[in-house]
Request: fold
Amino acid sequence: MSRFLRPASKFVKSISSVPALKTPKWVGNKSLSTCEETLLNVPPTRLSLLNSGLRVATEDSGSPTATVGLWIDTGSRFETDDNNGVAHFLEHMAFKGTKKRSQTDLELEDVPRAVEILSDIIQNSKLGEPEIERERGVILREMQEVESNLQEVVFDHLHSVAFQGTPLGRTILGPTKNIKSLSRQDLVDYINLHYKAPRIVLAGAGGVEHDTLVQLAEKHFKGLAWQYDTPVPEMDICRFTGSEARIRDDNIPLAHIAIAFEGVGWADPDNIPLMVANTIIGSWDRTHGGGAHNASRLAQAGIEGNLCHSFQSFNTCYKDTGLWGIYFVCDRHTIDEFVFQIHREWLHLCTKVTDSDVERAKNILRTNLLLQLDGTTPICEDIGRQMLCYGRRIPLHELDARIEAVNADTVRDSCYRHIYDKCPAIAAVGPVEQLPDYNSIRSGLYWHRL
Amino acid sequence: MLRKLFRVHNLGNLLKSSSRQCSSQSKTSPNVITPPAVSVKDSSSSTPITKLPLSTPVSWLPKAVYANVSELAKETQVTTLSNGLKVASEPKFGNFCTVGVLLDSGSRYEVAFPNTLIYATSVETTGLDKAIEILGDVILRPRFTEEEIQEARMAVSFDLEALQMRPEKDLILMEMIHAAAYRDNTLGLPKICPAENIMTIDRDTLFTYLKNHHTPERMVLAGVGVSHERLVEYAQKYFVDDLPIWEEDKSLSIRTSLKPDKSYAQYHWMHNATALNHAYIDTGIFCIHASAHPSYLADLAQVLTKEFVAMSSQITQDEFQRAKIQLQSMLLMNLESRPVVFEDVGRQVLATGKRLQPEYFIDLIKKVSQDDIVRVASQMLKSKPSVAAFGSLAMLPSLNDIESGLLDKSGRMPSKKSRFSLFR
Reply:
């Protein structure tokens, strides 16, 4: 069985190059400057563009299992106030049977059947009224679950204030009113408007041959439209607003608080320095070992003063904007002190972060990014996500080189532009009386002299 | 030929994570969208890499040489070193490897410690030397300063506190069902450190334990995604040539050694036991774990007894085949991930000295017949059940009712009416 790339057929415009087939043994040398060819101990990602505009991307590792997935470039950002929640509703409907198949037929299968099923789901979804009614109940229950998870509640509030008045300020699930009122027609309209071949990526990882997957895609997705009868829907710009939401409830045992600045979009060059900055702050839980020897200074402060139960720094990206900040859970009496420590760390990042801070964080970041690529499902997700975010899959050696190029100056410069003296968005739930008022948090984000 | 399998159940997540993403559209005419093309023009040579959008390829990078599917031999190699330490490795794609040590120091030997201890780490392949040095130091040469012990005590008490605030029901239920099924002996003893023991475990206890249980013949150093030669080389260096701290420093106060408790060991032939999969060499727990609103507890128990009884009657061919395929794919898909392969290699080598490839088990699953299911299930139903429950239990049927349910041909528990009728 040949696994080599055949000459592009007349149906397929292949835009990947034929990888050099050399025998890499165990990779030892990572130094890029001295090595003309970089050895990667992973199979290449191959990409084909079908005539309809549908993209097929695979990483064939020859393993006995495979994951294939469809990625559609759409979501709640294309929703309006009236149909907010429809994209999520469709996720729920995806496995509720199609015109050809009942729900129980959607079982484990081999790759050709899997592709056929995926195509069936997005092209022939039955969207039967009884299933829609049943799913309403399921989604409302899911909503209750989300509402009992305080972290999700805090992040929903954070988005609703940070991106107020824009699609990103809405929740993915949509308001209860919409979940109860969305009709079959709303779902059909949404599909017809957004499920177009150029906005879809078919990704495969594991035991999938690229050429086979391309042929399968040609066969099963030929019905997908690539043109609009109406103007192509535009994506609104999501404006960030420094603002806050506090829900004080002294009956909740611990305070759950998120503070964030406007970050950057997926493809922004500042994304990598901000990821490094995010790693320097780190994440920590007081049940973790390591005690006061933790590398994160914020964790050290948390341990020494017993100031916090857990915290995690985050860098969430969307198409053209993002949120960079921290989420923490702490006792009601230590909020003030811990916020002071957070300020200290952030200003440290913006003004005097050192090369050794940055080197350590780069190692952790690289490790975390690469360790995720374990198993066919995470790899398939990575391919699909990167195809939508970057229009390509960033080769590992390029990602390495991009992280390697970051130094203390790059981090300081990015943080100075995105954090220093900027208005944050704040969301706080629980016994949060002690959280300093907005102006006081805001005025801690600059120094009178450097 | 193995079937290539597909994960339907994961797609919900795939789609969900894209919900907030949006497209970039380079429009040619208002009614046509084209996918963003990978830019071919070379704008990247003049722009510094830190200012280049992530969507633009970097042109000046050295050419990448990718791995080839056919090169990866699927085979586990095992070497035994001079002191009895077994070293096992398996190749895998990726620039990262998982290495670690598995120790068979089960509750059969010492009542207060868990069964198989695993110390493992995932590192970049270039850092293998350092990783094994650290593993060697952690396992054979810990210092256990007063400060470290104090911090460990703190972490354990935070853990217990967290367990009380948000109980992890699965964990507690597993502890309870083992306690019920194996009452006074080893597997029934708690894995979670009881609060009153936190202060009594000291440096001497720890060193005494290590000296007796961290011995090379009870250890496997396993690696996934590493070269076998290098693994053996470093194992020799850090696990054979460098001595354990208790052999180097004779002043460490070691109490008289703990002998395996023969009375337990004879009666309970446990070997390489883990409470997670509930399969032990001569015994095992097959349990169905379910939860529901407290008011539905009676129905829940009824469903469970019916399911148990149904296993011993014929099931449909379709259902049976589907279960087999699901089990096979679950096995293969779990073994996609490096830490899981690592643990599998380690456990198998620890128990049998070699590792059988997943294909062997796939074949075994294929050979299972419907009669086997009926035979095993009927045998299982002859034993007395153990029941563990957690939460508000007012509606939970009594153990007697559950037992009679399991003995009934259709799994039905005695109804309330017949129980209260005095003149039956």
About this structure: Residues 114 and 272 of chain A are 35 Å apart (CA to CA). Chain A has two domains: 75-194, 244-443.
